[in-house]
Amino acid sequence: MKLNELKASPGAKKAPIRKGRGPGSGTGKTGGRGTKGQKSRSSGNVRPGFEGGQMPLYRRMPKVGFTNARFKNEFSEINVSRLNRFEDGTVVDAKLLKDTGLVKKIGDGLVVLGGGELEKKLTVKATKFSGTAAKKIEAAGGKAEVV
Question: What does the pLDDT look like over 34-45, one tens digit per residue?
Fold first, then answer.
């Protein structure tokens, strides 16, 4: 037996279905598409995943994958102008701000921002300072210490 002598078994090869070739073929006229409607037209199909306007399954499913939300740092923020309520020479830290009610919770630290003006001479201890906040504290004669 040689390769050119190989033949498929009888009944293994079927003739392709020829659609729209008359009533005798069984798939004449509408060609197995039914009558009317979007899917009966040429190029009349919907995109994969389309559910007739209903919210598709792939959008109804919950999102899975990496999110940084569990690992991000939550800092409490306070503007320089809010520190004017303290007396001159006071050491302002996160605990004092929480006790006076200026910040609700400390979280991962305290960030002092440069909003407003500072008229008091204070020593401010915080995790971070914005550039303008540090300048304004030192301009008022105080100290900005990073803890």
Answer: 999 999 999 889
Give the CATH number of the domain where residue 99 resides: 3.100.10.10
pTM for this model (two decimals): 0.55
**Residue 12 structure tokens:** 């293994």
- The residue written with tokens 């006790």 in the block is 99
Indicate the burial class of 133 (C-beta count within 10 angstroms; 0-12, 13-18, 19 or more). buried
State the Cα angle at 78 between 77 and 80, rounded to 5°.
Answer: 145
The total domain count for the chain is 1
Domain that holds residue 100: 77-146
- Assigned token pair, 142: 């105080």
